[in-house]
# Entry
Amino acid sequence: MSVNALNRLCREVLRDHAFRAAMKDNPEAAIAAYDLTPEERRALLDGDVVTLHAMGVNDFLMGYLARFGSCGLSVLLFNERIRSVPH
# Structure
C-alpha cells in the first residue's frame, strides 16, 4: 500500500498550483505518475474519503482535496463523508 504517496499527493494539491489545477481538470492524468494500487486510484478518483481513511490516509491532508475541488469533492461533501467514518 502506498499511503505515503497518497499523503504526499494530498499535500501537493496545497503546495503546487499546476498540480492543483491538473487535479481539478484531469485527475486521472495528474495522478498517473504516482505509485498507487488500482484500489487507491479508484478511491481517490471517486472522492471516496471513507475508503482512503480506512487505508490510513491522513484526514487533514485529504481536506486539501475538498478545499480545492479535486476528485469531485467539495468541503461540504468531504465533511459529510468523513463524518460517516465509524469511530
Remarks:
- The two ends are 22 Å apart (CA to CA).
- The chain has a mean pLDDT of 95.
